[in-house]
Recover the amino acids of this structure.
């Protein structure tokens, strides 16, 4: 006789939390203070953004340092097929942004009121805009062309960082 599995449909609801571990301070500073923190190697001085708890060149611990919310686009593209959470933003830019004072680049969204490739090209200056309702997640902030900054932070759902 052929095997036949007896199946019952059910649902499992799980409440859980996960930890950002050694990177926690980055997300707490983002959420509570609208500050972008990187880490600096205590031996060679290399500044990591996104932060790393240990320098990948020297393997020694790093220390936390606040970085500016301005930076330069190193490489970028325009997204036409986004994940569910970002579908309402399509099309939008993404890219690697090197914050002023950092030695590495962070991958993040780059929004523009008039999105064309020339607006987010390599070498363009950008500035971070923060959600007013932050949860301590990477999507709590994004970058905009510097010339659009004031317009973005005047929208009801966004705000600028602290000087
Ligand atoms: Zn180092």
């Amino acid at each position: 006789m052929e095997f036949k599995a007896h199946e019952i449909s059910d649902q499992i609801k799980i409440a859980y939390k996960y930890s950002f571990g050694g990177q926690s301070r980055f997300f707490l500073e983002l959420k509570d203070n609208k500050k972008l923190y990187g880490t600096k190697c205590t031996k060679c001085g290399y500044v990591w953004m996104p932060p790393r708890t240990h320098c990948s060149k020297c393997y020694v611990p790093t220390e936390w340092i606040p970085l500016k919310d301005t930076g330069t686009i190193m490489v970028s593209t325009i997204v036409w097929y986004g994940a569910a959470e970002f579908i309402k933003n399509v099309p939008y830019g993404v890219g690697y942004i090197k914050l002023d004072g950092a030695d590495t680049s962070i991958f993040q969204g780059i929004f523009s009121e008039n999105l064309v490739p020339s607006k987010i090209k390599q070498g363009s200056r950008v500035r971070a805009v923060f959600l007013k309702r932050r949860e301590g997640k990477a999507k709590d902030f994004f970058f905009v062309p510097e010339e659009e900054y004031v317009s973005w932070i005047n929208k009801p759902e966004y705000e600028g960082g602290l000087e």
Q: What stands out?
A: The radius of gyration is 20 Å. The CA atoms of residues 68 and 163 lie 8 Å apart. The first helix runs from residue 24 to 33. The beta strands are 36-41, 47-48, 62-67, 70-79, 92-99, 106-110, 125-131, 141-145, 158-159.
